[in-house]
Structures are given as C-alpha cells and as structure tokens.
Amino acid sequence: MAPRANWKGFLRLSLVTCPVALYPATSESEKVSFNQLNRKTGHRIKYAKVDADTGEEVDNEDIVKGYKVDTDTFIEVTKEELENVALESTRTIEIDEFVDRSEIDPRYLIRPYYLRPDGKVGHDAFAVIRETIREMNKVAIGRVVLTNREHIIALEPLDKGLMGTLLRYPYEVRAADEYFDDIQDVKVTKDMLDLAKHIVNQKAGHFEPDKFEDQYETALIDLINQKRAGKPITAKARPRGENVVDLMDALRKSIGGGTAAATEAPKKSAKKARKAAAGQKEMLMPIPGKKPVKEAAKKPAAKPQRKSA
Predict the structure, then answer these.
(1) Tens digits of per-residue pLDDT, 52-61?
(2) What's the CA angle centered on 268, arms 223 and 218, to 5 degrees?
(3) Whole-structure pTM over 0.85, yes or no?
C-alpha cells in the first residue's frame, strides 16, 4: 500500500497546469525504536501537557501557539489566524526559474519527495513539464507549503515522475568561516599526495547503496535477540585510536596492507552484505518472560522485509 500523500495541489509552468501529489521519498519507520518504561513496573511512560505554573493538565482545544517576546511575555496566535496567512503556494507549486544542478550548494538540501500526477487527468501536462526539464538538463525551482510553512523545492526528472528536494533558506545555513578560520595552513608535499592518491585508487569503487550496512541497527537487533533468548550480555571492547607520529610512515603502511585487502574485498563484502541482510531483516519471535515481552507477543515482532529504493 502506497503511503499517504503529504501534499496535493497543482504543478504550474506558466500556463501549463496539472494536479499532482507529493509523497515522502524516504522512511525511518523500519529502524529499531524504543519506548520509555517505568523500571519498577514495566509500564510505558505517558506524557501529559500541563500548565507550567499551575501544574494542571491542559486539554488540546485549550492549547494555542505563542511567540515568545521576552521571559514572561507571549503573543498568542490562533490556528485561524495562521490559516489566514494565505500563500498561493499552499495549493500550487509555481515553477519560478530553472538552474543548473551543479549550482545548488549541498548545504541547502533538506530531504527528497516524489511528485506524480494526482488522478487520471493531467498526465499529458505532467509529461510535458517533466520532459522539458529533462531535455534542458536543468532543475526547476518552485515553492510549496508543507506543515504551514513555505519551502523552496527543487524539481528534477526521476524515471516517469519528478523528485522534489526541499531546500533551506539562506538564513538557515551557517557561514563556514567561523569553523574553518582556525585551521592551519599546511603545505602538503607531492610525495604525501602521491601516496594518498594511491590509497584512493586502491579503494576506488562505485556508489552502490545496496552494499551499505547499518552496523548500529544490526547491533541493536542482535542485542534484542540475545535478551529475548535470555543470553548474557557482554560488553565488547571498543577500538582504540592511535596517534599518528609520522604521517609519511602511516601512508606507506596503509599502502602496504592495501593490496591484499583490495584482493579479498569483493568476497568479504559479499559475505558481509548477505550477513547484514539477514541480521537487519529478521528478529527472533518473542519468548515467555516479563510483562514487556508478553505485550510484544500480541503483535508480530519479526522485522519487516526492507525494500531497496
């Protein structure tokens, strides 16, 4: 079942308009998540919205938004007042301009969405807009309102649809100067560069996301499976970093061990990928035990099969 659209409206390029729907292109739902429990009873923790001064619980209908002016002064803003801040982009993604993909600073990228025609009408207009962007090898820049805020969105062709990436505003991006000014100017010798380039060439590959392994997720699932099975949990030794005394010597040693590693890499990575897939897709079924485990038994506990993008 396809996820619910985050937004529905119209995509417009000058006088060409079509109804579209916007869907999240990524998901965090398959990651291991935890609830907070009372250690003494095993019950889940419940959070209540209370008045900071009186300590009394407040009903949702009595809660309004407030802009903080100073320590004890707030300007109340109602839901109706926010809805009255009408923006054309609330219902329409208006394409304002076209830019080269290389001109978009990666720091401005937030998250991706899928954009497709909404319903049976408008496919022709959608295709015209999509193929124009593809043929011109450009990225379309427009505006869209999500969660009551207007965002800049960059649109580019992806298969039969469009991928829209939300962009940050300039005031959201910090200047790099204050972080990089104190970095020392170091003269890197040709020998150092040659050695480092050799290491890069040994490790050169292709971007293949299917090879990625979320090692922390695998470790979490392993921990949960061990606890369900009643096995003892032992702390693993943490790797210790070593201080680099001689940079040239470290580079040479890296190259020395690189050839053998490069030869064995394909076999090892394939085995690791298979192991990761099994470890990250499955969790043991619950076993009888304490109350939290019994509650988990009411619902299927197996890790759902992950789908590659």
Answers:
(1) 899 999 998 8
(2) 15
(3) no
